[in-house]
Amino acid sequence: MKCLIAIIACLILVSCSKEKNKPVGKSSGGQIIGAGATFPYPIYSKWFYEFAKINPEAKINYQSIGSGGGIRQITEGTVDFGASDSPMSKDDIAKANSKNNNKIIHIPTVIGAIVLTYNIPGINESINLSGDVISDIYLGNIKKWNDPKIKKDNPNVNLPDKDILVTYRTDGSGTTYVFTDYLGKVSDEWKSKVGVAKDVRFPVGQGGKGNEGVTGIVKQMEYSIGYVELIYALQNKLNFAKVKNSEGEFISPALESLTIAAAGSVEEIPDDLRQSITNAKGKGAYPISSYTYILIYENQKDVIKGKILKEFLQWALSDGGKFAKNLGYAPLPDQVIQKANSKIAGIRY
Amino acid sequence: MQESDIKISEEISTKEIRSKRKPGDIFFENLTLLFALLLIGLVLFIAIEIYGDSAESIEHFGFSFIFSSDWNPVTEKFGALAFIYGTIVSSILALLISLPVSIGVAVFLSEIVHKSVRTPVSFLVEILAAIPSIIYGFWGIYVLAPFMASTVQPALSSLFGFLPLFQGPIFGTGMLTASLILAIMITPIISSITRDVLKAIPVSQREAAYALGATRWEAIKMALLNARSGILGGAVLGLGRAIGETMAVTMVIGNKAQIKASLFEPAYSMASVIANEFAEASGSLHISSLIEIGLLLFGVTFIVNTFARILIYSVTRKT
Asked: In A31, A109, A297, B317, which residue has its Cα 20 to 30 A from B10's Cα atom?
């Protein structure tokens, strides 16, 4: 037993000391390693599987450790590509570029959305929520379901005189980032009091871990509200709200309404493709949506890996698109695919 | 046993033995020494590594890190008090709930029930320890929390609502539910150790008690009194498990960094905040603060274990 512990201890010591000076990704011959966001994991693994059928050399291993982990690993140079639900900050980009003497680029892959799910006994239809109402609920300014502000948007719904039980994601997540990014755009009070980040300090409510934790609380607790990813809500057949967009329409989250949101923002998309598409313009656009990105260096040091990655990305944005809808992801609008392709074309090896 | 061994070795001159020893003995002695040192070295290595990685946060916040309960990643203000409070209160509460139950189970199994029932029942109790904590977490959120919200918490608040402990809105999840989950998780540990300790008490003692006219209850009480240091030891092991438990607690504690008197309110534990925020933390101060919480968790475990050792020592000494 002790011998076993000692062996394990030795292994830990050895692996720790190696980790610092030897990037894991570079040493594994031919295999491409990526790490990052959990949200696009199902579509990415489908893509890797399908792409390997076309190109048998492409062995891509993706670890869904979270967007923050993906950014950290690509900055350290321990993976061949990273993935993140929110674009990297300017500081993070500068850090990654100077550390690796390279240029990191953002490739949007699919679009995801956040929905507001709730549990009000007796109400099975979609309720209407506007941005300032959502932010007031999460700020604690609106405490009851029959608040006049909620009633105004739902004249035909019999809302109960009950306290709203607010639920949020407690683990740092791209989901929380997109949600707070939206609230920051529609409410100045939110922006100044709480802010926009992957973890924020919510003024009211309680936290669930992961989409499943939030769903668990909302399903079990009457009169609760929470926010989760669209795919998760669809798969679990949760009730979700129609959210008022910038055109004043109440829009139900559907894959088409996400692609519309992205298309509505395409004129303002910056050259590096880092763009928030929450509260987007356009009729029929659902307002709480976002791109998810693959992060990759422009100058690939390994010729074989660089070639495979470049081909993979080109394939994913063209032929790969057909797998997205079945798995609950909205495909990119054509204009964005064009822009992303010109970025991919810039990858050198 | 150990004491007599030491005495014997003291009596014979150590030099005399050394000269007569075979090389195999020396090799074996050094080998075991190496293993022992490896473990100590590992603990030290972890402590130093954690300390080094939390240097930025220690430098930035100093002692205010321990005394502030303000935790806001957006403004980069970090204080761990709410997490320390959550960990200690939930673990001790769990121990208070679990200890009487565990002792009851152990007494039942070792003193009262027939052997044909004992084996299956103790197997079932021990199997509780083998359930992964994430399963406890989901069971907590889908079964226990709704039950707490519909039955237990309303009952507590109507009976003991005058106490600040049982006031406030009823969520189902929160400090009390987390403690209850922890209590269920540590019961098999404490009860199986208590059972073994009770079994180790010689039958002759019980027979002597009966011979003197003691009732069954008095005989059990005597056995429990004699076993108290072992029972405390089991309780310490259970407490250690409760302090470090992460997934099950995270699912039901409510994850809000606040210190509230009411046990119905959501709280947060040290292990939970690390599990929740570490994967997505990107600011270096945020990461460093999370690692400092790890360091503090190390410290809390150390202090609690030391106190427990002292307690066991003082209890044992009286016998």
From this structure: B317
ipTM exceeding the 0.85 mark:
no
Is there a contact between B276 and A209 if contact means CB atoms under 8 Å apart? yes
Is A2's pLDDT higher than 80? no
CA dist., res. A208 & res. B252, Å (int): 8
- The reply to whether residue A5 touches residue B250, judged by beta carbons under 8 angstroms, is no
CB contact under 8 A, A206 and B254: yes
Tell me the whole-structure pTM to 2 decimals: 0.81
Domains of chain B (ranges plus CATH)?
3-53 (no CATH), 80-318 (1.10.3720.10)
CB-based contact A201 B72, cutoff 8 Å: yes
Comparing CB atoms, the residue among A6, A195, A213 nearest residue B251 is A213
How far out from the chain centre does Cα A47 lie?
A: 17
Task: Report residue B10's pLDDT band, with 50, 70 and 90 as the boundaries.
Answer: low
Contacts of A173 in chain B (CB under 8 A): 280
Lookup: tokens for B25: 């003995």
Search chain A and give the residue with CA nearest B284.
Answer: A72
Task: Say if the Cβ atoms of A205 and B32 lie within 8 Å.
Answer: no
CA angle B137, B138, B144 (to 5 degrees): 85
Residue numbers in A near B255 (CB within 8 A)? 170, 206-209
Rg of chain A over all Cα atoms, to the nearest angstrom: 22
Over residues A165-214, the pLDDT tens digits come to 999 998 888 889 999 999 999 999 999 999 998 889 999 999 988 888 89
Three-state secondary structure string covering chain B = CHHHHHHHHHHCCHHHHHHHCCHHHHHHHHHHHHHHHHHHHHHHHHHHHHHHHCHHHHHHHCCHHHHCCCCECCCCECCCHHHHHHHHHHHHHHHHHHHHHHHHHHHHHHHHCCHHHHHHHHHHHHHHHHCCHHHHHHHHHHHHHHHHHHHHHHHHHHHHCCCHHHCCCCCCCCHHHHHHHHHHHHHHHHHHHHHHHHHHCCHHHHHHHHHCCCCHHHHHHHHHHHCHHHHHHHHHHHHHHHHHCCHHHHHHCECCCCCCCCCCCCECCHHHHHHHHCCCCCCHHHHHHHHHHHHHHHHHHHHHHHHHHHHHHHHHHCC
What residue ranges define each of the domains in chain A, with the CATH number in brackets?
32-112+290-345 (3.40.190.10), 118-268 (3.40.190.10)
Contact assessment for residue A119 and residue A218, using Cβ atoms and an 8 Å cutoff: yes
Q: How far does A251 lie from chain B, in Å, by closest CA?
A: 30
What residues of B are in contact with residue A213 (Cβ under 8 Å)? Answer: 141, 250-251
